[in-house]
Specification:
By secondary structure, the protein is of the alpha+beta class. It has a single domain (2-144), classed as 2-Layer Sandwich (Heat Shock Protein 90), CATH 3.30.565.10. It is 34% helix and 27% strand. It is built from 5 helices and 5 strands; from the N terminus they run E-H-H-E-E-H-H-E-E-H. The protein has a 5-stranded antiparallel beta sheet, with helices on one face. Strand 2 and strand 3 form a beta hairpin. It starts with 7 loop residues before the first strand and ends with a helix.
Protein backbone atom coordinates (compact mmCIF):
# COMPACT_ATOMS: atom_id res chain seq x y z
CA UNK A 1 0.00 0.00 0.00
CA UNK A 2 2.70 2.42 -1.09
CA UNK A 3 0.43 5.38 -1.77
CA UNK A 4 -0.62 5.68 1.84
CA UNK A 5 2.68 5.12 3.63
CA UNK A 6 5.16 7.56 2.04
CA UNK A 7 7.71 7.93 -0.72
CA UNK A 8 10.11 5.39 0.83
CA UNK A 9 8.38 2.28 2.07
CA UNK A 10 8.65 -1.35 3.05
CA UNK A 11 6.17 -4.14 3.62
CA UNK A 12 6.72 -7.22 5.73
CA UNK A 13 4.60 -10.29 6.42
CA UNK A 14 5.27 -13.01 8.97
CA UNK A 15 3.61 -15.87 10.82
CA UNK A 16 1.61 -14.92 13.90
CA UNK A 17 4.15 -16.42 16.29
CA UNK A 18 5.20 -14.57 19.42
CA UNK A 19 8.90 -15.04 18.64
CA UNK A 20 8.43 -12.90 15.51
CA UNK A 21 7.55 -9.83 17.60
CA UNK A 22 11.25 -9.10 18.22
CA UNK A 23 11.99 -9.52 14.50
CA UNK A 24 9.27 -6.98 13.67
CA UNK A 25 10.74 -4.44 16.11
CA UNK A 26 14.25 -4.81 14.69
CA UNK A 27 13.07 -4.65 11.06
CA UNK A 28 11.16 -1.41 11.64
CA UNK A 29 14.05 0.09 13.62
CA UNK A 30 16.53 -0.78 10.86
CA UNK A 31 14.29 0.73 8.18
CA UNK A 32 13.83 4.06 9.96
CA UNK A 33 17.46 4.33 11.10
CA UNK A 34 18.36 6.61 8.17
CA UNK A 35 16.30 9.32 9.89
CA UNK A 36 18.69 9.15 12.85
CA UNK A 37 15.94 9.05 15.48
CA UNK A 38 16.73 9.81 19.11
CA UNK A 39 16.81 6.89 21.51
CA UNK A 40 13.42 7.98 22.87
CA UNK A 41 11.89 8.15 19.37
CA UNK A 42 13.32 4.76 18.49
CA UNK A 43 12.11 3.28 21.76
CA UNK A 44 8.60 4.68 21.18
CA UNK A 45 8.44 3.21 17.68
CA UNK A 46 9.74 -0.19 18.77
CA UNK A 47 7.26 -0.25 21.66
CA UNK A 48 4.23 0.50 19.48
CA UNK A 49 5.32 -2.15 16.96
CA UNK A 50 5.60 -4.63 19.83
CA UNK A 51 2.17 -3.72 21.20
CA UNK A 52 0.40 -3.89 17.83
CA UNK A 53 2.07 -7.14 16.75
CA UNK A 54 1.39 -8.77 20.11
CA UNK A 55 -2.28 -7.71 19.89
CA UNK A 56 -2.54 -9.27 16.43
CA UNK A 57 -0.98 -12.53 17.59
CA UNK A 58 -2.76 -12.92 20.94
CA UNK A 59 -6.12 -11.27 20.28
CA UNK A 60 -6.50 -11.33 16.50
CA UNK A 61 -5.35 -14.88 15.92
CA UNK A 62 -5.75 -16.32 19.41
CA UNK A 63 -2.08 -17.41 19.18
CA UNK A 64 -2.74 -19.47 16.04
CA UNK A 65 0.58 -19.46 14.13
CA UNK A 66 -1.15 -20.00 10.79
CA UNK A 67 -2.26 -16.34 10.87
CA UNK A 68 -0.28 -13.65 9.07
CA UNK A 69 0.69 -10.24 10.45
CA UNK A 70 1.50 -7.49 7.95
CA UNK A 71 3.59 -4.42 8.70
CA UNK A 72 3.87 -1.50 6.30
CA UNK A 73 6.27 1.33 7.06
CA UNK A 74 6.59 4.53 5.10
CA UNK A 75 8.83 7.55 5.37
CA UNK A 76 7.77 10.92 3.98
CA UNK A 77 10.28 13.66 4.82
CA UNK A 78 10.46 13.45 8.65
CA UNK A 79 7.26 11.45 9.27
CA UNK A 80 7.14 7.69 9.82
CA UNK A 81 3.85 5.94 9.07
CA UNK A 82 3.24 2.47 10.50
CA UNK A 83 0.38 0.21 9.47
CA UNK A 84 0.05 -3.11 11.27
CA UNK A 85 -2.70 -5.43 10.10
CA UNK A 86 -4.11 -8.86 10.67
CA UNK A 87 -6.97 -10.81 9.14
CA UNK A 88 -7.95 -12.29 12.48
CA UNK A 89 -11.17 -12.31 14.42
CA UNK A 90 -11.48 -8.53 14.74
CA UNK A 91 -12.69 -6.56 17.72
CA UNK A 92 -16.34 -6.67 18.81
CA UNK A 93 -16.32 -3.30 20.61
CA UNK A 94 -13.40 -1.13 19.50
CA UNK A 95 -14.24 1.75 21.85
CA UNK A 96 -14.23 -0.61 24.83
CA UNK A 97 -10.96 -2.18 23.64
CA UNK A 98 -9.35 1.30 23.59
CA UNK A 99 -10.11 1.87 27.28
CA UNK A 100 -7.08 1.70 29.57
CA UNK A 101 -6.80 -1.57 31.47
CA UNK A 102 -9.45 -3.35 29.37
CA UNK A 103 -8.37 -6.78 28.14
CA UNK A 104 -10.30 -9.57 26.48
CA UNK A 105 -7.71 -12.06 27.83
CA UNK A 106 -7.56 -11.52 31.62
CA UNK A 107 -6.54 -15.16 32.07
CA UNK A 108 -3.25 -14.34 30.32
CA UNK A 109 -2.60 -11.49 32.76
CA UNK A 110 -2.60 -8.93 29.95
CA UNK A 111 -2.34 -5.29 31.09
CA UNK A 112 -4.92 -3.89 28.69
CA UNK A 113 -2.70 -0.91 27.86
CA UNK A 114 -1.75 -1.68 24.23
CA UNK A 115 -3.99 0.86 22.48
CA UNK A 116 -3.33 3.46 25.19
CA UNK A 117 0.43 3.08 24.75
CA UNK A 118 0.16 3.30 20.96
CA UNK A 119 -1.99 6.42 21.16
CA UNK A 120 0.30 8.16 23.67
CA UNK A 121 3.61 7.30 21.99
CA UNK A 122 2.58 8.39 18.48
CA UNK A 123 1.48 11.70 16.96
CA UNK A 124 -1.47 10.08 15.18
CA UNK A 125 -3.27 6.83 15.95
CA UNK A 126 -6.21 5.12 14.29
CA UNK A 127 -7.55 1.60 14.79
CA UNK A 128 -10.06 -0.01 12.45
CA UNK A 129 -11.60 -3.39 13.07
CA UNK A 130 -14.49 -5.51 11.95
CA UNK A 131 -15.63 -8.61 13.81
CA UNK A 132 -14.51 -11.55 11.71
CA UNK A 133 -12.62 -9.23 9.38
CA UNK A 134 -9.38 -8.40 11.15
CA UNK A 135 -7.82 -5.27 12.59
CA UNK A 136 -5.68 -2.49 11.15
CA UNK A 137 -3.73 -0.01 13.25
CA UNK A 138 -2.33 3.09 11.52
CA UNK A 139 0.09 5.38 13.34
CA UNK A 140 2.33 8.34 12.50
CA UNK A 141 5.28 9.89 14.28
CA UNK A 142 7.39 12.87 13.33
CA UNK A 143 11.11 12.32 13.84
CA UNK A 144 12.71 15.47 15.22
CA UNK A 145 16.35 14.82 14.34
CA UNK A 146 18.27 17.25 12.14
CA UNK A 147 19.11 14.47 9.71
CA UNK A 148 15.40 13.76 9.15
CA UNK A 149 14.80 17.38 8.16
CA UNK A 150 17.22 17.17 5.25
CA UNK A 151 16.25 13.78 3.78
Amino acid sequence: MRESTGNNFMSLQFAAKSENEAFARVAVAAFISRLDPTMDELSDLKTVVSEAVTNSIIHGYDSDPSGVVTIKVGIEMDVVTLVIEDAGRGIEDLELAKQPLYTSKPELERSGMGFTIMENFMDEFEALSEPGGGTSVRMKKRIESKKALYN
